[in-house]
Automatic annotation (TrEMBL):
<protein>
    <submittedName>
        <fullName>Uncharacterized protein</fullName>
    </submittedName>
</protein>
<feature type="compositionally biased region" description="Basic residues">
    <location>
        <begin position="1"/>
        <end position="10"/>
    </location>
</feature>
<dbReference type="InterPro" id="IPR019587">
    <property type="entry name" value="Polyketide_cyclase/dehydratase"/>
</dbReference>
<dbReference type="InterPro" id="IPR034660">
    <property type="entry name" value="DinB/YfiT-like"/>
</dbReference>
<feature type="region of interest" description="Disordered">
    <location>
        <begin position="1"/>
        <end position="21"/>
    </location>
</feature>
<dbReference type="Pfam" id="PF10604">
    <property type="entry name" value="Polyketide_cyc2"/>
</dbReference>
<dbReference type="InterPro" id="IPR023393">
    <property type="entry name" value="START-like_dom_sf"/>
</dbReference>
Length: 238
């Protein structure tokens, strides 16, 4: 009779049964999730435990640290203490596009906050939360431009302005980012067009840092492309 080889397989722990009250249900599922993740990482060797297994860069150790942080902050109220001990890393985005439009044309769109909804991904300019906007469409250093995207309003304060060459700004109020600084640099091409270099850096919460860098890189790429398209063709961003 041929021999049969049996492989030992670890079976997932089934979810708990419904308890008599909400507190017991919460405790039951919390213990269930703790046990499940502990079983999955138990025995994982170095360096595999630190090796990314998916394109996002997530590894087992990072996943375990994330879940530990969420439990401590949500249920034990340790968020402030944890954040004070762990410095928040700076994230960056960097996009460059080229348009046949002149630097002067691109510049006029950048310094006029009212034009941004025409070519960018923002929906509207919130004038009630903006400050020191120039009625002639040439906003200066210190102006706060508040843009609404969906239900979210973010404010950006202009910090540096070099005519037709550089516009820099920082966050005035932003629920998703902290210490945000961005620069938009314009350079003429040999054919009288413009190279638009838009880049920035920021901090975000521990939870959002998993998704914000990829999202913002794509969002800002769309912003720069919309600016280039509108400056060149006078057509709104797609």
């Amino acid at each position: 009779m041929p021999s049969t080889t049996h492989r030992n397989r670890r079976r997932d722990t089934p979810p708990p049964r419904t308890a008599s009250n909400e507190t017991e249900v919460l405790r039951g599922f919390l213990n269930y999730l703790r046990t499940s993740i502990a079983a999955k990482v138990d025995g994982a060797p170095e360096p595999q435990v630190r090796t990314a297994a998916v394109p996002s860069g997530t590894n087992l150790l990072g996943l375990l640290s994330h879940l530990t942080f969420v439990e401590r902050s949500m249920f034990l109220g340790d968020a402030a203490r944890i954040h004070s001990q762990e410095p928040s890393p700076m994230h960056k985005y960097d996009v460059t596009v080229t348009t046949s439009a002149s630097p002067e044309t691109v510049w006029k769109l950048l310094v006029d906050a009212a034009s941004w909804p025409l070519w960018s991904k923002v929906d509207s300019l919130d004038t009630t939360r903006s400050a020191d906007l120039d009625p002639g469409g040439d906003d200066g250093v210190g102006a706060v431009r508040a843009f609404r995207t969906g239900r979210v309003v973010t404010g950006e304060r202009l910090t540096e302005k070099v005519e037709r060459r550089l516009l820099a700004y920082e966050d005035a109020f932003n629920s998703s980012m902290r210490n945000y600084h961005a620069r938009i640099e314009l350079k003429s091409t040999a054919s009288s067009g413009t190279v638009i270099h838009w880049y920035g850096e920021y901090e975000t919460s521990r939870l959002l840092r998993w998704v914000m860098p990829r999202y913002l890189q794509k969002f800002m790429q769309g912003m720069a492309e919309g600016l280039a398209r509108y400056a060149e063709e006078g057509k709104p961003a797609q």
